Input
Amino acid sequence: MIVTDDYAEHTAEHTPGPAAEVVETPAAEDGESSTQYGVGPFTVRELAILVAWGLAFIVSFFSVSTVRFESVWTSGLLWILTIAVPSVAVFLIVLRRFSPEGIRRVGSLGIDQFASVAFSVAAVLWLQLLWDTIAVVVNGGPWLRSWVVWVELALMFALVVLTVFAPFIEPLSDDFRGRPEIVAHRNARPVRKVVPRPRPVRPEPEERPAAAEGTQAAPPEGYHQLTPGDRVAAVPYEQSGSADTGAYAAAAATSGSGPSGDFGATGGFGSTGAPLVSAAVVSDAEPLAATDDSTRTRAFEQEQVHASAAAPAHQAFWALVPEERDVVDERDIPIFRIGPTAWALVIEDRGETFVVRHEDGRIGYLHDVSGVTRG
Output
């Protein structure tokens, strides 16, 4: 039940390559061989687990009560944790030998870790049954449990020794030496540091100076308050880049003067009741001039540049990881590995995850993006 998160540091110089290198060679520990001998496809420890579980499974069909026949299979849901979950753990141990690329973990737990938890929980439940019986006898009651409880407790304790304490017992610890190093499941990695969320600072509202009594408020920018001596240009509506002033393009000038002219560009009325029109209004003393369309065009282009800059970019790039790391699929199952000896093609950067494409077309996710060198 060991998960190793320590990886060797590589400091050699590398050059960018056309694709990520697939690294699947097991790395044995220093001075140890990756070859392991056993009985058939199983090691001695795994064979002992199979024998202990087989005896426990057979005994589970006998009655645990001395009063009437009542096995764990007929005692409500007691069978789930006492014998069913340990059976699933043994099945996964056997499946691992015959299908190494099959199920390799249960959630964030490896198969050996899951077996350790399953056997430990079952041993505690069998101990609880025995403890309840002893408590009844101490209070003067009869002995209600059969020999099945004693045998099951002993077998489950043996399975706990073969899984939980096996890494510390010779020669059982040989099963855990020379195993290939892999990146830990993201649910089993160290947690990130948590800091309080900063509170947003609300800007204080700007105080607008109140208009003095008897004075006229200035018209909005881009508008002109008509006076009796102004001539108004009749202008057709045209969409512009300014949403605040609603500017119009100047067209042909019309005859007439004062408020009775053609208000094609009317924008409302001022504080004195005179209409507000766009900047196309001219006075009698100056010629009719067209609105500066180039200014609005530049403002519209600047808004387009700001909008395109705010859009997310998904440009591919080359990446080099400092050590060998797994690239997994949507179910967090490793599909290939990238190492420090070749550059990997990242087709999308999602912040804490890279979408990596292999040279054979496979696409996976790299969750550990720390220390990555971009090329």
Notes: Confidence is low (pLDDT under 50) at residues 1-31, 233-291, 308-312. The two ends are 38 Å apart (CA to CA).
